[in-house]
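stuck on this chain:
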Amino acid sequence: RGNWGNQIEFVLTSVGYAVGLGNVWRFPYLCYRNGGGAFMFPYFIMLVFCGIPLFFMELSFGQFASQGCLGVWRVSPMFKGVGYGMMVVSTYIGIYYNVVICIAFYYFFVSMTRVLPWTYCSNTWNTPDCVGVLDGNVSSRAALNLTHLLNSTQKRTSPSEEYWRRYVLNLSDDIGNLGEVRLPLLGCLGVSWVVVFLCLIKGVKSSGKVVYFTATFPYVVLTILFVRGITLEGAITGIMYYLTPQWDKILNAKVWGDAASQIFYSLGCAWGGLITMASYNKFHNNCYRDSIIISITNCATSVYAGFVIF
């Protein structure tokens, strides 16, 4: 079985595997819902008593056996069903995350225009409910629709939302109507799968080199968004809400449940990926040190992303 080129490649790969949408969007959302800074208290307790031990166990398990999430259970054949479960979960995750990447590619391509297509409400896919802040006829439309708004019979929508629902996805009106295949999205999905193939074409030899970019670039983007966000009006108010704890919510069991689920979700425990990546380590590698570094980096990224979002 091959090995990582060096230990930095494994750490960066594990960080890139752990850090994702769960850190950038799900963690700030849970903080907002569960009392701001008060949510960090159960979050870090779950990290110390659940996240790091389980993370360390999976790394040491895969490193000791030098097997993936299926072969590693030869140590106890009674639990081989756990390995198959990990494989199924990882398959589902790989499929739906590539759809997310596909959407990112689509917006990347269509944004290469002088005027973004989701800026105004004057497009063929827009409805009378659409109201954009940059539209010149907002005042007149608001006056015409005042009666409807007062009677709550009309829901105001943004041009970006209608672009997403009515043009990009072209949602059908009923679950029984499958609609059509969106060829632009299909092409972007093909591009995302090709990118994944090229990253993994030589196993850890190629993926270990790719992570030098894929694991560090999100931090560059987060920093750019943070600098931009901190200059906007009301930024300090949002950050103060993020940091101010609402201690009464700590007594709510749901807050602790959200903290535990967030730790499992963001670290990627029990999905099989950690065991597989650790199986390419050298036998005497210090996986305890790696588990501490990766876990703390992952959670620090969540806290940093909270400042960006709030």
Notes: Residues 7-309 form one domain.
